[in-house]
Amino acid sequence: MRRPLVLLSLLLAVGCAREGSRSDRVEPAGPRIVVMAPAAAEVLEILGATDRGVGRGDYVVWPPSLQGLPRVGAYHAPSVETVLSLETTLLLTTSSQAAQGAHARLRELGVEVLALETNTYESMLVSIVSVGRKVGREEEARRVVEGIRREMDEIRELARNAPRRRVAFVVDRDPVYVAGPGSHVDEMIRAVGGENVAADAVSDWQLMSMEVIFERAPEVIVDTSDNGDRALRGRVPGPWGRWPFLPAVEKNRVYWVDPIRLVIPGPRLPRMTRFMGQLIHPEIFGEPSPEDFGALEGGARARQ
Q1: DSSP secondary structure letters along the chain
Q2: Euclidean distance between CA atoms 230 and 226, whole angstroms
Q3: Looking at residue 303, what is its pLDDT?
Q4: Mean pLDDT of 77-98
Q5: Are 164 and 194 in contact (CB under 8 A)?
């Protein structure tokens, strides 16, 4: 079954994990954290702070170290009662209009809410430092950010003389939404020698008509719109094959990828960017492996 990308990414990411009881857990030092945002969960992992976690959002499906925690609802609709029952002191989430009421209520009841901005490349890097500061590991977080910037520069250098290939990065197909300017996906596309067909859009996640897609004729289509159990994966035209005149279809450059592989902004950015390079310029970055298109090992399926 196809599930909306917004449940995973923004955040996104997009199976039921075993729920652990608080009595089985060692009490962590520092804040007691409920992590709602997949991106924030990955930051906790790289900073070695997942032991601070006492609960997770329904769409935090990775890393494995958090999968035993009780679920507290979707990122845009956390259960205030469940969050309070876990004696939470810090809720890590992403900015959401829909969740403002719940966030305000939690703040009134003494829970700190850190709503991260992760929709752009630069804001994603800032969010890593923000999380590090909250868990007492700001210096480590700054080193992570420096490492990301350094690796991204190395990747850009590899693709410096590569021909620009037009890329459509699809995050939903009903209707069609694509990655726009400023998003971390846009940054990845440009870093590996791609040209985002939505580079002139007004939003980082942009609604785009099929007529415009036909006009802009992408040479590569990366489709992350489906995270269902029977989703297409790998290099196959799929539904895009109904338009054989698209260069991406004609040249067999349509890729179906689990959204967690490319749409969660966070510490995996250089790894994700190299994978993007394999899709856009395999002659430079090498061919991807079949297993690279599916869910991350040890992860869970998001609750529908």
Answers
A1: ----GGGT-------PPPPPPGGGSPPPSS--EEE--HHHHHHHHHTT-GGGEEEE-TT----GGGTTSPB-EETTEE-HHHHHHTT-SEEEEE--STTHHHHHHHHHTT-EEEEE--SSHHHHHHHHHHHHHHTT-HHHHHHHHHHHHHHHHHHHHHTTTSPPEEEEEEEEETTEEEE-TTSHHHHHHHHTTEEETTTT-SSSEEE--HHHHHHH--SEEEE----STT---EE--GGGGG-TTSHHHHTT-EEE--GGGTSS-STTHHHHHHHHHHHH-HHHH-PPPGGGGSPPTT--PPP-
A2: 9
A3: 53
A4: 92
A5: yes
Residue 29: what pLDDT?
Answer: 58
Across the range 21-42, mean pLDDT stands at 73
Collect all residues with Cβ–Cβ distance below 8 Å to 129 and sequence separation of at least 6.
Answer: 138, 141, 142, 145
14 pLDDT tier (thresholds 50, 70, 90): very low
Backbone φ, ψ for residue 206 (5° rounding): -115, 130
Using a pLDDT cut of 70, give the percent of the chain over it: 88
Residue 10 confidence (pLDDT): 36
In whole angstroms, what is the distance from residue 14 CA to residue 54 CA?
Answer: 20
Cβ-based neighbours of 276, under 8 Å, separated by 6 or more: 188, 189, 191, 192, 194, 222, 262
Decide if pLDDT at 273 tops 90: yes
pLDDT value of residue 27: 47
